[in-house]
Specification:
2 copies of one chain form a homodimer. The first copy, chain A, has 8 helices and 11 strands. Chain A is of the alpha/beta class. In chain A, helix 2 runs parallel beside helix 3 and helix 6 crosses helix 8. The interface between A and B is medium-sized, with 29 and 23 residues. Chain B binds a DNA duplex (30 and 30 nucleotides) through helix 5 and helix 7.
DNA sequence: AGCAACGTTCAGCGTTCTCTCAGGTTTCCA
DNA sequence: TGGAAACCTGAGAGAACGCTGAACGTTGCT
């Protein structure tokens, strides 16, 4: 199976590197450029499956880039990146077709989830499943719904992201630092105590429905989602 | 099989030597430098599989080093080293992809375990398994879980590290000094009696589940984890 | 504007862990 | 065989760790 090709376009080197290495690690083949002209050139040459595009670029706006691309018959879906306080109305309405957008700062895991969601919508034949199921708990990535033994559980956005990350890494201990890195936005500079808080929230919602606790504390190491898998 | 190449970057000679000799002994091919510029040069030339990088360097910060490396398309994962009281927020958010970080003071065995964990995550094709199994005892490095004949055993962090070190060197006598050096943090200045205490703790937890004692005392020499495996 | 949901911090509390010490036991050897 | 050295282990002080309820500010919705 070929790796999925993603073109990253952002002029801030920090963000660009963050995205590039994060996505590479997630198994994508990544090409990263810093401006609109390079983006168009790279898209033409590299035939990416998806483009991660900052709206504010030094030479031209992200929208001009897409316009140019579409006119060149490059139809790869675009995931726009925009600062939170930039007017969102402009974005809405322009994300047609398979496109989507996210506001900065984002969390890496969220970006990856979005990319998968877009590709899922775009290529129906995608192998990716939108359901994550571990033990008694399952997540519907499309509907953002969580079920425990068939029963629906309401989670806040952060609770949801945390649970997803823990389940993606089931049966592996994750340190609070790792969790912070993947679940929270990249500019979060608070304390790790917040992870404890959210684990506590999740337990309060999940434990009453599971036959045994699924979120284990590994004192001194971190937390782990445990599936009581039979062999 | 080629040895794994590790680049060590730390300006404190003591730590650098400690790491270099410890890692060499563990079977790595080690190159050690003292500052950021040398690190970049060495990384370009030596193509290391992993970089052990102190965050506080005399000429440039460890982050600048990684930035430079990434821009040069050197994608080796980085294990950052940072003083415990340095603000950890700075690290958070920057350890993406395969990267990770540890706080000083560390224990040598913990560093080695981390390196293996990172390489395991990075190269999926790695032969490394996350399970250490000697005789009736097995350790799951991902889940930080210990089993004796299939039965789970709860260990404290230090107990776990001690057992891992003993099992990694099964059927080899380890002196208390060696154990202290590898399992405890390098600035530990207590007595060796603590090793006796922890061996005692381990025995109390393991012996009831094994057919015969696995932790042997070699009077005057040290301790040994014994496997009664036939060949 | 008012309200509800959410994210974040913090302090208090109980639990667990680390480390030391001292008294007891085993081993070795003169 | 007696004694010293090495080792074992229970007890306990203090610190570290983790959990949770409460408070507060922010955001978004009605």
């Amino acid at each position: 199976m070929e790796p999925i090709k993603v073109l990253v376009v952002d002029d801030e080197p920090n963000i660009r590197d963050l995205l590039a290495s994060g996505l590479r690690f997630a198994g994508f083949s990544v090409l990263a450029v810093a401006n609109g002209n390079d983006a168009v050139a790279a898209a033409e040459k590299g035939k990416p499956d998806l483009i991660l595009l900052d709206v504010m670029l030094p030479d031209m706006s992200g929208f001009s880039v897409t316009k140019k691309l579409r006119s060149m018959d490059i139809m790869a879906p675009v995931l726009f990146l925009t600062a939170r306080d930039e007017v969102e109305d402009k974005i809405t309405g322009l994300t047609v077709g398979g496109d989507d957008y996210m506001t900065k700062p984002f969390s890496l895991d969220e970006i990856i989830a979005r990319i998968h969601a877009i590709l899922r919508r775009t290529k129906q034949a995608s192998v990716e499943k939108s359901i994550i199921e571990v033990g008694e708990v399952s997540i519907d990535e499309d509907a953002h719904e969580v079920f425990v033994n068939g029963e629906s559980v309401e989670l806040s956005p952060t609770e949801y992201k945390l649970l997803r990350f823990l389940m993606e890494n089931a049966n592996r201990v994750l340190s609070k630092a790792q969790i912070l890195d993947h679940v929270w936005e990249y500019d979060f500079n608070g304390e790790m105590g917040i992870v404890e808080s959210y684990v506590s929230y999740l337990r309060k919602k999940l434990d009453p429905l599971t036959s045994e606790p699924v979120l284990l504390t590994k004192r001194g190491h971190g937390y782990m989602f445990k599936s009581n898998k039979k062999k």
